[in-house]
Amino acid sequence: MSAKGDAVRQLIADEYRNFCRTYGYVRIDKLVGEDQSILALNRARKLANKPFHKNCKEAIAAVLEEFGNYRCECCGCDKYRRRRGQLMVTCVFCKHRQLLTKTVQFFHQAKSLHLRLFYFQLLRKGVDFKCKQFSDALGMSSNTGIMLENKTNQAALMELKKSGRLASAPLKEIMAVFSRRQKLTGFNNTLLKERRARVAAGNPALTLSESDQLLVLKALRKGPVHFEKLITVLDLSASRGANAVVMLELRGKVINAEGGLVCPL
Asked: Each residue of 80-90: pLDDT tens digit?
């Protein structure tokens, strides 16, 4: 190992200790009592570090809120409600629930969110390291560092490193290393354009037709439903229900099957 590599590993180890101290990590090496099993030890660690993981989620949410890339996948709204320490958000318009991390691949549905947050913060501080150095400094498998590196856009990262702007680049530019563009279907994209036009006109509320379409889509999440049952459950008139189904069929979201079944695509 080179002296430079050792210095980088030591820097990462020091930064990780500061990270754990900042977010309230509780280290438990041994239990007091009769049950000394690994299972009991892991259970105790999990319970003791609930506040730590909540603090990490809150820090990730703060980054994503500053990034401002949230958009409801149903109506295109950019306003939501969120509880502290949680990444699940609720759209204020259509009440659809989704993860705040949905458009940021690096953080989305990750098991070890604290490791990803630490990796992100290291890069934001301008620390230039390799995946092997990261794994060695934290005493983990080399696959951990490789996996985290594979979750980033290496071309964008190398461009920032070569220009010497890794620590000084704005958040929008940094997030290009970690995020991916959200895929919008034709239906969602049309709703988004219509809503933007209403916002510009000072009327951001959903139209009646759009509300009916969203209700139908939510009712079809678990599978096909007969049209008569659909309008009964949703308390829609036959004309409103038929209009919503036709609009969704034109946008490629549902299909009218034989026997009056409405099937999601």
From this structure: 889 999 999 98
